[in-house]
TrEMBL record:
Belongs to the ATPase delta chain family. The keyword Cell membrane applies. One of its GO terms (cellular component) is plasma membrane. Keywords: ATP synthesis, Cell membrane, CF(1), Hydrogen ion transport, Hydrolase, Ion transport, Membrane, Transport. It comes from the Bacteria. It holds the Pfam family OSCP. It is found in: Cell membrane; Membrane. This is ATP synthase subunit delta. It comes from Lysinibacillus telephonicus. GO terms for molecular function: hydrolase activity; proton-transporting ATP synthase activity, rotational mechanism. It is a peripheral membrane protein. InterPro entries: ATP_synth_OSCP/delta_N_sf (IPR026015), ATPase_OSCP/d_CS (IPR020781), ATPase_OSCP/dsu (IPR000711). This protein is part of the stalk that links CF(0) to CF(1). It either transmits conformational changes from CF(0) to CF(1) or is implicated in proton conduction. F(1)F(0) ATP synthase produces ATP from ADP in the presence of a proton or sodium gradient. F-type ATPases consist of two structural domains, F(1) containing the extramembraneous catalytic core and F(0) containing the membrane proton channel, linked together by a central stalk and a peripheral stalk. During catalysis, ATP synthesis in the catalytic domain of F(1) is coupled via a rotary mechanism of the central stalk subunits to proton translocation.
Amino acid sequence: MSKSTVAKRYADALFQLAQEKKVVEEVNNDLEELVKVIETTPELLSLLSSPKFSIERKKQIVAEIFASANPIVVNTLELLIDKKRVNEVGYLAQEFKVLAAEAQGFADSTVFSTRELTEQEKAEISSTFGKLVGKENLNITNVIEPSLLGGVRVQIGNYIFDNTVANKLEGLKRTLVG
């Protein structure tokens, strides 16, 4: 998903409100569920953005479907309907997740390796590389990439730490060939 400026603004406002009410984790979970619902039933997003239904009817549908969700999430979704920005909900959830993780001292990371990492290896990578970027812990997504030959490549936001055999061989090749 690409970044959306509008979604970032909404996510910032939603995050501030969730912090005030001390429901950041609950709102984050509800947003994740909302995104899952939209991904599994794309017709819902089409319905909510369709001009065939009145704004009031769309809000009524949202209130019925997400009755168990935190009222802050429902109100935000209704606001997006009012402003005809309901298509931004996926981006908003993504931005909110980043803000929530940062507030808790976490960061999302992707670790590329030749095999599945053990929990101990993930914990070591999390503590070591988390310190390098000023975070307490990392939420690690492990991606298997056999072309690395060995070692790991860790991507945290815009930072990439490449300690793979393939990268070292490439460096050696540049040095020898010139």
